[in-house]
Amino acid sequence: MTGPVIEAVDVVRLLGNGAGQVQALKGVSLGLSGGELMLLMGPSGSGKTTLLSLLGCMLSPTHGTIRIGGHSTDGAGPEDLAKLRREHIGFVFQSYHLFPTLTALDNVRLALDVRGELAKPAIAKARAALASVGLFHKMRAFPRELSGGEQQRVAIARAIVGDASAILADEPTAALDSENGHAIMTLLAQIAKDPARGVLVVTHDPRILPFADRVVRIEDGRLVGEEQRGKPVN
């Protein structure tokens, strides 16, 4: 494994104001390395989603530092954070977040359009990304014509098409049955074999533990345990 592709250093995040203010994260330090599939696990309200949002530049820390591809987000404005997201981070969500009026190809290509890539090379990259997740034959299909597992594969293709160094997945198997969940995690584990790319999966699902290189547990806004595991299953 290489050094961190994304990193939180002593991060604190406050939510709310006044008497209702809560400390969602309490001095969390965590790094995701290239070539690694990490699981972040913990009960509801533990801070998992808040930490994922900070690592993905959707939120800024109240205190502490986020580094992405060696770049600190300290003092970064909304446009700077958006640029870091576009260039370094791919997202995979539980509910897929596909546009229902766009084909699989156009849903993937959209990630390149927002970066200003020209149409012809963007289409070629989108086709290649769909092929890599086993959906080249479904590139003209709309989301309603795809199964849940296929929609999640489109979402993964969209996350990787721009060569993001960090793939952040929020409960990617939660809406899927065991067979499709296993297939999605097999795909993410394959992606994580790239030494230039790390995959972080937030999950409640103990079925996917065998795929992890590392399991980090969080409770009440603090990291409470870490376990190094063997290589992901095939």
* Unreliable spans: none
Give the neighbour order of strands across the main sheet. Answer: 6-7-8-3-9-10
**Series of secondary-structure elements, N-terminal to C-terminal:** EEEHEEHEHHHEHEEE
Count every helix, treating DSSP H or I runs of 4 or more residues as helices: 6
The SS-based structural class is alpha/beta
Query: What proportion of the residues form beta strands (DSSP E)?
Result: 25-35%
Q: Approximately how much helix is present in the residues?
A: 25-40%
CA-atom Rg in angstroms: 17 Å
Q: How many strand elements?
A: 10
List keywords for this structure.
28% strand, alpha/beta, 4-stranded antiparallel beta sheet, 234 residues, single chain
